[in-house]
């Protein structure tokens, strides 16, 4: 059985770990590898490597850092397919979708290649006679990233390219369910010329995470995962004085107005609900039809959902792969049963799906519920599977109120041909990322990604300008160079201009 090791100080390492977790192939149900689970000593080894690398890396010139970033960008581009296949084999998503994930991560690397521009400070000449004021930003030190299973390349890349470009050193604790892609990323950083110890990978579960949160030498933590863990990470890491951004779970609504093109909206709803088997934090899991849009939308969505081709991620004809584990399959199937019991109308039932030749895979087919109400478990739970729930609202304002009553505020979308309705929606909805006829409005790398309410703990969104601010702290210098013609004029009152 293959063992997936940590990456510490520029090389694969066991760091004394003895316990492991199984890594499955979700399409076959095969136990394909074991991943090491670090204990606190293992985490300490990774943090020590990062701490030792920080003085030199933080002093590396912007040109030297940019050179490494451009080389890394090139290597990720060249290894995109290999990364996508690793994702498909451990996560289960189809290779074309995984390639899209790598591309969105690559865009953050490209953003970070512009670090000389992004780190420019400010300068104010002659704020008082002979006095200038200027600001610049410095890295924090060792920063850590703790990431979920659903985007094993893209989500870590929301973090490490920006953190490293800013002059920090990095410890990544990826999801223990699909850890291999992070090891290839580590090798690519190394090949790009990144000094040993600047990027480290430590695998593990709660024990490793807690060791990171409590470690005195970790200055900041970026987390992406479910809401209960995000809340916990924020509380525990801020208690030890760390800077924290913790992005949580979601229940993303898309509203469909009667003036929307039903074919366009239903195509996009099905793709946004079932793509990646619904295991996306920006997946649309609740469609809210307004007025008399409902019946036509449900009929079109059910028809299209039933035709989604489900199969292994490596099969190019597959549109949707399996879910991550047998436990996830059973949980999702259980929730579908609860939805029926609680009175929702099951328009398409994905339970019990089998894929010929892949009998032991973790399959759940596309599922659509109509007549869902806000008290049902299929609405209140983040199902994180290929399940679309359809709710009905009488007016746009009622649909906006419904969205705003939900505790999450990650992403949302509106399908309409009315500019004024779209504008009312974008202004009224309490959600961080909004799509207008765009179902999965993930911001480009040069904007920042983040939700509101229970989808984010901490102030900072991730990547883009807020990412640069998160991974740096500012200094403001007030400077005077007295000349012999102007003798010292120190004064005891509070300085003003
Ligand atoms: P998760 O919260 O179970 O795990 C995330 C990370 O936390 C993993 O590295 C895991 O090892 C660690 N972890 C798990 N349990 C822990 C515990 N008790 N104590 C400390 N650490 C723990 O999430 P997941 O199942 O891997 O990913 C799916 C979730 O992530 C969904 O809720 C999804 O919405 C969310 N997500 C959010 C975003 C976003 O941008 N807001 C993006 C991707 C995924």
Question: Care to describe what's here?
Answer:
Helix 15 links the parallel strand 19 and strand 20. Helix 2 packs across helix 7 and helix 4 runs parallel beside helix 6. The model has no long low-confidence stretch (mean pLDDT 97). Strands 15-16-17-14-13-19-20 form a 7-stranded mixed beta sheet, sandwiched between helices. The chain has 16 helices and 23 strands. By secondary structure, the protein is α/β, with parallel strands linked by helices. It has 2 domains: 277 residues, Aldehyde Dehydrogenase, Chain A, domain 1; 185 residues, Aldehyde Dehydrogenase, Chain A, domain 2, CATH 3.40.309.10. It binds nicotinamide-adenine-dinucleotide (NAD). The site of nicotinamide-adenine-dinucleotide (NAD) has 27 residues, from helix 8.
Q: Main sheet?
A: 7 strands, mixed
Counted up, domains total 2
CATH class of the largest domain: Alpha Beta
Shape: globular
CATH architecture of the largest domain: 3-Layer(aba) Sandwich
- Which ligands accompany this protein? nicotinamide-adenine-dinucleotide
Low-confidence stretches: none
Helix content: 25-40%
Q: What proportion of the residues form beta strands (DSSP E)?
A: 15-25%
Short description:
38% of the residues lie in helices and 23% in strands.
Index terms:
16 helices, 497 residues, binds nicotinamide-adenine-dinucleotide, globular, 6-stranded mixed β-sheet, alpha/beta, Aldehyde Dehydrogenase, Chain A, domain 1, Aldehyde Dehydrogenase, Chain A, domain 2
